[in-house]
Amino acid sequence: MVISTEGLSFNFGNQQVVKSLSLQVPEGSIYGFLGPNGAGKTTTIKLLLNLLKTDQGSIHVFDKELQSHRIEILSQVGSLIEQPAIYLHLSGKENLMNRALLLQVSESRVDEMLKLVHLTDAAHKKAGKYSLGMKQRLGIALALLPDPKLLILDEPTNGLDPNGIIEVRELLIRLVTQHNKTVFISSHLLAEVERMATHVGIIDQGELLFQGSIKDLEAISQPRVQIEVANTVDAANFLKKQGFMVTDITDDLLSIPFTSKTQMGEINNLLNQNGYVVYSIHKIHKDLEKLFLDITQKA
Predict the structure, then answer these.
(1) φ, ψ of residue 14 in degrees (nearest 5)
(2) pLDDT the model gives residue 25
C-alpha cells in the first residue's frame, strides 16, 4: 500500500471532522476519494501531507510512518489542493522554471513536463491567459516536476468545463498506465471518478463508508437485466407469470434482477417466442452516483 492509515481522526475545536479513518491505497492505482462537500476530504488530504497534525491514529506512506520520515516521504509526493499556485504574469514555462530552480531540476525536465501535460505549444503564453483546464494541467506539471511516486490531488476538476475535465482525466490515466505513478484524487463528481478510478473510498461526515476496487463497488450493487421491448406492461405481466420479478417498468424499458447470462437468454427466448419484439437486452449496474446515495442513506 502506498498510503495506509489506521484510526485516523482530527478535530477542529469540538467538531470531529475525520473519524477513525483507515485508508488503503494500492500502488499503481487511481484511488477516488469520494464524498459530498464538507465530508472531510480536504482535511484528510492535509493530514496526509502533514499540513495538519494528526490527533489520533497513524499515517504510513511508502510503508514508513509519516511523522518520523516526513522529509523523505514528502520528497516523493506531489500535490495540488483545489487551485494551482501559479504566477499569472509569468508564462507556463516560466512558472515551471521558477519551481525548477528551487528544486534544482534541469530545464530538460521542465520541457518534459510541458510535453506530458500537453502544454508545449502554450509554453510561452502568459498563465493568466490559460483556460481553467490548462491552469490545472500546469498545476499538475508543477506537482510532477520532482518526479514523485505519489500524486495527491484535491478536486482537480472543480470548476472545469467538459473539455477541461476530459483533459485532466486523460492525463491522470496516462500518469498511472505509462509513468508508474499512484494517484489519490478527491472529488464530489462521482460520474467522473467512475470513468478513471481503479479503487474508491467513500466518506461522509468524516467516516469511511466504503472502500475497495471499482469491481467491489459494482458487486455490492444489484445488477439488473434491462430490456427494451414493445408493449412493456404486457411483457412485464407475461414475465411475472413465468416466475420472474419485474422491478421497474417504463414506456420503453423493464428491469429484472440479474442472476446469470443463462437467465438473460431464457428471458429473450421467452419474449420472442411469445410474440414480444425485443429491441435490446443487456446487464447494467447502478452508476456510482446511485450507489453513493444508497451507501450514505444506509449509513
Answers:
(1) -90, -5
(2) 92
CATH number (2.40.40.20, 3.40.50.1440, 3.40.50.300, 3.40.50.1000) of 3-219 reads 3.40.50.300
Span 253-297, pLDDT tens digits: 888 888 888 888 888 888 888 888 888 888 776 655 666 667 766
Q: Could you give the CA distance from residue 254 to residue 54 in angstroms, rounded to a whole number?
A: 50
Provide the mean pLDDT of the chain: 84
Fold of domain 223-285:
Alpha-Beta Plaits (3.30.70)
Residue 249: which residues within 8 A CB-CB, separation 6 or more?
A: 232, 233, 236, 255
Q: Work out whether strand 24-25 and strand 253-257 pair parallel, antiparallel, or are unpaired.
A: unpaired
pLDDT band at 24 (very low <50, low <70, confident <90, very high): very high
* Structure confidence at residue 39 (pLDDT): 81
Cα distance from N-terminal residue to C-terminal residue, the chain = 27
Q: What is the mean pLDDT of residues 73-87?
A: 83
159-194 CB burial, b ≥16 within 10 A, e <16: ebeeebbebbbebbbebbeeeebbbbbbbbbbebbb
Rounded Cα distance between 250 and 222, Å, is: 19
Grid coordinates representing 62 are 511508502
